[in-house]
Amino acid sequence: MQKTLPGTTIAVERIRPEEAETQLASLFLAGGLVLSQVSSLTGLEPYVIQNWVRRGFVAPPERKRYTRRQFSRIVIINMLKDSMQLEKICALLSYVNGDLDDESDDLIDDSQLYRYIVRLAALTEEHPPTGPDEAARWCQTAVSDFSEPVPGARDRVVRCLHVILTAYLAARLKREAEALLAELA
To answer: Which region is the signal sequence (predicted)?
Structure first.
């Protein structure tokens, strides 16, 4: 069964961190993506992305091009919107990155956060966590290479990832329930 990278329309056979890195790195070789490309790669309408920029959820594009960091933010929001309200997603991202339209106060680059999310999503491909304690351990392990810019940053990132992982699993269960319901009809 064909899958997609979390929050994107990018098809992959299996969700694997190294494949995600290869795919995303190649997208940004030319220096950035225009709105139509971001829209195509996320499945979002252009006006939705522009609205998120206008509302301060994503920093404005530079010379009409979105950086990998901005693209990652859009993908993360897109991934979470099926299981969380937009305002709660933004509060969660603010927990680790302060003012969302100001990248200078970030504890973690959104592209690095997305890499951790892909690591966690890949783990769930094998088997979902057995409970919140195992999910928390997975999140702790996922950030093993994280270099703290300030004391306490790692703990904030781990907590944020735990919420993201839980929301990701909830969205997946919701899709599975809807598919089962459709079979009943």
So the answer is: none
Alpha-helix runs per DSSP H in the chain:
17-27, 35-42, 46-54, 68-80, 86-97, 110-126, 132-142, 153-184
Check: CB of residue 117 under 8 Å from CB of residue 161.
yes
124 contacts: CB under 8 Å, gap ≥ 6: 165, 168, 169, 172
Token pair recorded at residue 2 = 């064909």
Q: Residue 3: which H helix or E strand, with range?
A: strand 3-4
Helix (H) or strand (E) holding 12: strand 11-12
- Cα 110 to the center of its chain, rounded Å: 8
Contact, 181 vs 173, CB < 8 A?
Answer: no
Whether the pTM exceeds 0.85: the reply is yes
Taking CA atoms, 107 is separated from 65, 69, 73, 121, 156, in Å, by 23, 13, 14, 22, 9
Predicted local distance difference test score (pLDDT) of residue 77:
97
> Per-residue pLDDT tens for 46-71?
999 999 999 999 999 999 999 999 99
Where does 44-109 have alpha helices with state H? 46-54, 68-80, 86-97
Confidence bin at 2 (pLDDT 50/70/90): low
Q: What angle do CA 162, 125, 66 make, to 5 degrees?
A: 65
pLDDT of 143 strictly over 90: yes
